[in-house]
Each structure stands twice: as C-alpha cells, then as structure tokens.
Give the backbone structure.
Amino acid sequence: MKKQYQSDITGYKAAGFIGNYQELVRGTVIPYQYDVLCDKAGTEKSHVIDNFRNAAKALRGEDTGDGFYGMVFQDSDAAKWLEAAAYSLAVKPDKKLEELADELIALIASAQDKDGYINTYYTVKDREKRWTNLLEGHELYCSGHLMEAGAAYYEATGKRELLDVCLKNAEHIYERFVKNGTEGYPGHPEVELALMKLYRASGEERCLELAKHFIDVRGVDPDYYRKECERRNWSVWGANANDGTYQQSNMPVRRMNDATGHAVRAVYLYTAMADLAGELGDKELAEACGRLWDSITSRRMYVTGGIGSTVHGEAFSTDYDLPSDTAYSETCAAIGLMFFASRMLELNPDSRFADVMEQAFYNTVLSGMSLDGKSFFYVNPLESIPGISGISPTHRHCVPVRPGWYTCACCPPNVARTIMSFGKYAYGENEDTAFCHLYAAGSVKLNNGISFDCETRYPFDSKVSYSIISGGRIAFRIPHWSRSTPISVNGKPISAETVNGYAYLEVSDGDEVTLDLDCEPRFVYASQKVPSLSGKLCLCKGPLVYCFEGVDNGGDVFDLRLSPDTKITETRAEGLDGIPALEMQAEREKDDGSLYSFNEPERQKCTAKAVPYFCRANREETAMRVWLPRI
Amino acid sequence: MKKQYQSDITGYKAAGFIGNYQELVRGTVIPYQYDVLCDKAGTEKSHVIDNFRNAAKALRGEDTGDGFYGMVFQDSDAAKWLEAAAYSLAVKPDKKLEELADELIALIASAQDKDGYINTYYTVKDREKRWTNLLEGHELYCSGHLMEAGAAYYEATGKRELLDVCLKNAEHIYERFVKNGTEGYPGHPEVELALMKLYRASGEERCLELAKHFIDVRGVDPDYYRKECERRNWSVWGANANDGTYQQSNMPVRRMNDATGHAVRAVYLYTAMADLAGELGDKELAEACGRLWDSITSRRMYVTGGIGSTVHGEAFSTDYDLPSDTAYSETCAAIGLMFFASRMLELNPDSRFADVMEQAFYNTVLSGMSLDGKSFFYVNPLESIPGISGISPTHRHCVPVRPGWYTCACCPPNVARTIMSFGKYAYGENEDTAFCHLYAAGSVKLNNGISFDCETRYPFDSKVSYSIISGGRIAFRIPHWSRSTPISVNGKPISAETVNGYAYLEVSDGDEVTLDLDCEPRFVYASQKVPSLSGKLCLCKGPLVYCFEGVDNGGDVFDLRLSPDTKITETRAEGLDGIPALEMQAEREKDDGSLYSFNEPERQKCTAKAVPYFCRANREETAMRVWLPRI
C-alpha cells in the first residue's frame, strides 16, 4: 500500500462537536493567549513579546531594556500561538488575526541573528552560553516549535517569512551538528518532529537529514549529557545529567523497548522516529516504534489515554503503575501520544493506533480545557478527593479546580493547536485512498481529489453519514469498541472488506455512506496486574470514558458501587451545556462512621449519574471518580 | 481514681510469645547492635563508640583522631542500645552485657564537658555551633535518648553513673533555657518525654520543670525557627524553618487539633504532653491530647496501627489519606504511638487506648523486624507489588525485602527497646489496682503488692489465665474486638463490673482467673471516607491483622476476591516457625490479558491463605496485600 499522510491543514472545515470546539479556541483561547504574550491578560506577566523585542535590540547593539524574563523556553509560547493562529486562519480567514500574526513574525525575524541563531534567552542574557547546555537549554526545543509554526503558517497562508526564518535557523543547526560534527542532541526532543514538518513544507532535504541525524546520534554515547555537564559551569535547574532513562539517552533509539522518562519528551521523540521510519523505510526504527507503542498502550497508559503516571519528573513509571488519584497524566503528554499515534497510522493504517489517538483526544486532551475555554488542567487524575486532592503531599499536583493560566504555559496552547488542527488527525490520504481515522463532522477535500461532507453528532451519537462529493476509495476506521458497525451505501446495507480495522469502500460522486457504530454504554475492566484497579469497573460509551462527580450524586461518589448488569439510560446533567449524561441503578455503602469497623456496611439502592470525563470539574469543586468498585 | 503508672522495668518476667521475642532481642539484636556501635558488625561503619572516644579526646585537648562520623544524631544509637541493654538486664541478669554497658557508660561520661554538655558531633566538630540550630541540631534529642537510657539503667541495675551524667546534662539545659531564659525548643521532640522519666527515676523537680518549659514555650512564637535560621550561618540538611506544621511549632501545643508533620516527632511530643498533663493535672493539656488522639486514631491511622502515611517528610498527611501501597507507616512512629497510648492510659484507663497500643505493637512494630531478628523494615506498607514496590518513584521507599541495617539506624534499636520493656506497656498500677492492659504470659510483681502469673498462647489463642500469687484489685482490659469475653474465677463464670473497657475484679491469693477472648477471625471495613479502601475488606483475628502473600497463594494475590461470608479455618504456612495461618474459600478473577478489556473477568473458586501481617516478608520476595476487594 502507498504511504499515507495527514490531510492538509486546509483540507478539513469542521462542523458539529469539533466545529464548536474550534470556534471556542478561535473566539476565546487564541485571543486570550495573544494577550498573555503581550502581558495584557491580567495574568502573571509572560514577557514573551518583550523578550523578542529586547533580543532584537541586543542584536542591534542597543540597550536590552528590561532584559529577558521567564522560563528558558519562553519563546516557544509565541511559536505555539502562531501555530494555532495558522490553523485557525486555514479553517477560517480572519484579517485582524492575520495582521497580528504577521506583526509577530516580523518581530521574531528581527530577533534572528545573522548566523541564523534565534533564541531570546541567550541573545538577551548571555550569548556565550549558546549551545553549551543541550540538556536543559531548550534551544532546539524552541527552534522546533518555531519550525512547526513556520510550516503551518506557510501551509495556511502561503506566506514564507516565518518559513524562511526557520530554514535559516535549521541551516545554522545543520552547520553546527552535521557539517561541523559537533556532539550532542536535544534534552527535550521536539526539533526532530518539527524538522520533518519543515522538510515537507519546504522540500529542503537538509531538514530531513538533520532530523535523521538527531535520531541516529541519540543515546549512542549515553554519557553525552554527563560530559556536557562537566564542561559547562552553569545550569538552568540542576537537571541530573546521569539519568539517561529520564532523558531517553541511555541507549540508541533503535534498541529501546520501554517508554521511559519525561512523558512529553518521550512521545515527541517517538513521533519523530515513526515519521522518519516511514519517510525512509527504516524497518529497524519502525520496529522500535512498535515496541514503544506496545510498552505505552499495553502497560503504561490510563483508560483515558493519559500517559506519564507519576508527578516525579512528569514521567512514565514502571509497568502497571497507574494510580487514579495521584496520576500525573499531563494534557501535553496525551497530545504527544496523539502525534505518535498519527505517525504510527501513517506507517500502517491499523485502527488500534486511531483508537488510542481518539481515546487520548476525547478524554485527556479535552479534559485539559474547561468548557468555556478559559481555564486549564495540566494534570488529569482519574479520581479527585475533596480534602486530599491538591492538598496532601502526594496529591498536591492534582488540583481539583482548573487554574486560569500557568507560568509554564505548555498545555493551554498545545490544546489550542491540537483542536485547531483536528482535521490532520481525523483524515489521511495517499494517492488513491482517503482515510477516515476519526469521525468528525464537516467538509473534507483531499489532495488526491476525493472530497466529501460528514454529518454526525458523534461522540454523542452513533450515526456517521458521509455525502460523497468526489468519489474514490475511502477507508473508514471501525473502532475496537464497536461490536457491530453496519455500513450502508445509499440506504442499502453493504459488507465492506475490512483490513486491520479499516473498512475499504469504493464510492462514487453523490453516494451517501452511513456507518452506525455501536455506542452502547459498556463497562471496562483493568488487568489484574494493575493492583489499584482490582475489583473495579469503568463506564465507557463509544470513545468516551465517564466519571462520577459528587455534584451529580448528592455529594459523595466514594460510597458508590456498581453492578456490571445495571441498566444504563441517557439523561442530562445540570450545567453542562446539554452534554448527555448517563444514569443507572447503583448501590451506596453506608458505614457506621468509624475509621475501621467490624460492621459490614449497609447497602442502599440509589441512582447514580455519570458524565463524560472530559467535562469533569466544570461546575463547583467536587469529588470525582472514574473507576468504581464492582458488586 | 488514683493515677495509674506503668509497672517497673523489673516487674514483669516474660514468657510465651513476648518471652520468645525478648530472647531473640537478647540473643541476637542487642549483641549485633553492639557490634554496629563498635564497627565490628561488617555493616557500613557507625563510628558511634569512636565518636565518644574522640569527643573525650577533644575535651582533654588531645588530637581528635579520625574525628566525627555519621549523622548529627549518631550519639542516640549508643543511648538506645544502653536503654535496651538496661531492660534486658532487668529481665535477665547477664554479667558480660553489664560489663559492656558499664564500659560504654564510662566512655560516655568521659565525653561530657565540665558544664554538663554532652554531644560528640559538636564537641568533636565545632563547639561554636552548640545550641545554634535547635531545628536540625538534635542536641536535645540525643540528650533525651541518653536520659531514657540513664533512667532505665538506674532502674534496672541501681547504678547511678549514667543517671548522674544525665542529671548534670539536664542541669546544663535547665540553666540555658529556663534560668537564662534562652529562647527555643527542640526541633525533634524527645527530651520532654525523657525528662519525665528522668524526673521519676531521680526525683529531681527541675527535670519536671524543664519538660514543662519545653511544652509550654513550643509554638508560642511560631516564628522561632525562622529567626534561628536567620541568625545562624550553617545548616545540617537545609530543613525548612517556616514549616511550623511539620515541626509542630505553628501554635501553642494546648491549641492543637490535628496530628501533623513528622509522625515520630509528633507522637513523641504528644507522649510528653499526656505525661505532663497527668503529672500536673493540667486539664487543658489533657484535652489537647484527647483531640490529637482522636485526630490520629479516627482519621489518620492504618488498620495496622501504623501512622505517618506519607514518605514526604515521614509525616502525617491529611485526614483519610491512607494509601496501602505507598504507605510510609514508619516502625518508629508506631512505637511512638504506643508511648502516646500508654500515657493516655495513665491519664484515663480506657481500653480504646490499650486497643490501639496493642494494634500498633502486634502489627506495625513487630513487622519492623524479621522473625530471625536480623533484618528490619523502616516502612510498613499494606501492599507490596512486585515490579512496582521499591522501584517506581512513588514506591521507592516501600522496599519489598527487609534490609540488614540502616545508616540512619533509628528503627532497629527502637524495636529492641520496645520489646524488652513490653511489661511497662502491658501492666500498670496505682496504689490499689493492677492493670492488665495487654495479655502477656509471664510473672508480674507490682509495687502495690499485687502479683500473679499469666499463662497464654495469645495472640494465637484466646484463653488467658492468671494465677494470683498476691491478690487485690485487678483491672482486665476487654478489647473492643472481643464480642463476648467470659471471665471465670476458679472455674466459675462471674460477671465483673466493666468501666471504660476494663473489667474490675477483687481477687485473692491463689485464685485462678481466666478470660476467654473472642478471637474468631473477622473482617474489618474502612470508612467510605478512605477512597483507596472502598469496596475492600481486611481480615483480622484478635489483635492481629492478616495479609495475603504471593508465596502462600500461587504467586499472585491481586486477583483474589473475598466474600465476608467465607468460612475461615486455621492452618499452617510454610516456613514461618509454626505461626498459625488462616485459610478460606475465595475467588480469583482471570482477565483476558489486555490492559483494559470489555470482557468481564471470569471468576474461579480457589483457596486463599493469609498470615499475620507482622510476619510478612520473611520468606522469598513476594506480593503482599492486606485489603482485598470484596465480593
């Protein structure tokens, strides 16, 4: 089969559920985020725009004003905003937004050194420190985010200025690490996947070569960071240079078996590995990706598609260590898992990759943002306990209420760009086939000529209808959770050839294709190897994981017990914009009030209500639980 | 009722279960511990004896040889050994042991400064630093342990040398903090409870006054440690001087409501508070003790009597935060809870104090030492998960196998002294009554003239028989877990007046009193407010909590499910010196091997075996679980 790629940014105009989310990001998140960049948002100052202004002054030999402020990776906030803005412009033209973006791009260009170097931290603070601290310095990380923005802005608007800044920057990096053979590789992988995007947008072979270089050299000298640390006399936050497992540098990537270390770094790295493996037909690399995929999805992933279970280093833990109440499960890590899944799909269109991509999106990624787009979670536990969550030393990271914005603002813009580029994950193509990986209402127009409209209330309804505008071969994903998925063409049931979870159909202009997924509520059970989940069950419906919140259940949810045989009906929950909830018979255990008692708790029948996990914590502060003890 | 006190050290000669444990400590632990002090044990060197030797040299103006080595509180290891040795001599004379102890005491005396100061860290390293760092410096802590040893050695042998060293040291501390009005109070409470012992052994009123002083001034200036920290220019390990909740200095002790901070420090402090409250008839202090007792036992204690649930600072967490698998539950903290319980009992002979004292002893304290007395646990989780416990970042402290000895060797000698002085916890007295708080085979001879022998296989058997040698009024504790406790005198059932869980009997010389406790195996349920235990049950029998180990259950215990209606029979477990185990019908859930599955796991009937928690981890490395999901 020919290699399949993500659809173009401009290839999907969203409607329905995704359309609404994109409107929220366009109307609320992107403008707010811009105000943050300019220190106009009334939040803690970010100084992002000022940093670029001061860097430009430094390059011109002028006084750098109030200098640099913020994290060492502060520049990436501008890049992430530009990337989200680019996707937004691709989806819906907006003159004012485009002007703001063009202005910011001009400012960024003015902060680029003659040799192509660009990073305000080093340009403003200390140019001598450039490239001396790859472990913590984030220069390659910031370059990577700029490259993603440059590629996206060029695709969306056809404007080359940022793309050219990025190409010049890539050339500078290439000179240093490939041509001059300087040792080292990024402490926070990101530039590798970004170089692949820059390569595709520009056709510049050196981008591909540079991405491959960083993948190839990583971990070959597992002591690189230790040596680097010994050479330099400064540190950003004193990262441990000897923890190769944490920074994915303990062995060459092609030998890796387990997903380890900082979860975002890990999946960003694996994304680039899978992308390169596909681009170059590198079987060894593809096999390593397969093993890492299995490590994550068979042993180290929450049912919500969340990864990186421990707060200690925002990292993967050991196999089956998946605590609900102390979960880290960072929003950005789930986004990174979507990236990885999307590249795995390109390597091999198999529904298990799309299933996980969807699981991560509809649960952990969307959980990262409130329904009004104004507050955000970094951390996505599967249980929130009033009096313990956010308070106890082991639960301090699990705040029960979404804060407005963070100093380290990685998750909010990451959610924004993911929602705005949803089409790239939902639809793929190769020369002769359109791939419908995710169900997403709206219009799709692919480069291979196939185009169609999709109508659906998914994920709240099971029916997905496609009106074919320009026909051809279309592969529809059949998710593993749908026990039967009748497909009809023009009202007539058909039986389609299904390969690796994709139903392949030849359709003609004007055809109406309808899929009826099995979205009946179902219970999920965890492996006995996850001790924290033994004897428990979790309620799902289609791609959605449900949770029980105190606010819908008379305050308490920890005394609820569920039978797998209970009948579940659809209902509404107060204050959730009409998002469907589920209602069922359950039991409550009433104890005698003592900490420990010989009295078997009495069981009382009750009605329990569950809401989709992604809309948790949108009302008052309340208890929340995903996995309930089973009766 | 007249105030009740612990029995004298010499008042109880143990037999049976406790007798065997005392033999183990006498024969194995105390000699081994002495070798550690002298660096002869083949473990990491402790340098304890050498520190005293070098301190003596420093005082004589000689070269201090190889200087000081070890923790700032290294001296306390010598004191704890001496205290255990004293109890051992009280129980069974041993010339060689007494000689070693006398020698060590002479060495310690030679390391005391003319002004009464004694601490090798400061004497050897830097005398200028004396008393400048009460927060971390541990001078008062080490003095306290020496005072406990001094009082014990005097009681056991009648020899005054160490007692006089301690009194001179107490006088030095009194001068500084009371007479000269120097600000400050101990960062690690201990000296307060020790001063109370020294006061009782010596009759020296200033010891009582000094203990009261430290209790009275504590937290009155909650900023004391911050100011101290600002004044000094050195630190032991950079403790946070602003965390008053952690060091129990955020408010005057009489206002405290919640047990907070470092668990050992907390209960050592509460012990002294309760002791003082009784001694002085201080109602306000007694009420604070009552609130702190409730805070611990109704909201912050494991079913094993373990306290201090979080590894972060070895501390109390918030209410109901009692995770099984990441529990800290330090052995020393359970010992401290026994101290506190014992003083609460003296304030008010109520069986709920003795019940908790027993719960802590038979479960967490004994769990701290292997059955052969050669290896020790600091940390006592209620679940041990192969591949996660001891490995994952959140479970690193929960090592699954007892190490031989620790650099920070607090728990092993603490277990040793507690076992050797068991009689002080088991038996109490006032002028006209003998109190049997715990059931313990052996001979008892109290100061009030009452004496008796006790015969029992407790905790493995329910029958406890007392042969009265010299009669009077005896109060027998009736534990809350014993649903009915028939008492007979000379074979005839009697009905005794029972007040606050104590049955009061007038007995005559030659009487035979028999209690038949209800030690049937029973299930315990936790409050719904402990989310990690919802839907689970725990098997108990008398004072013993049971656990399920992989080694008795075909490897895995996390797939086991238990019905509260299952019939439980007594059996044996392999390799546990004949300690009775329990056997019952259970079910195993067999899953389909995937991390998450829609397939309800199949249930298979099986036989499950449980062993007392205290003898966990005495065989091969294995899975262990106390709380099992209920069916």
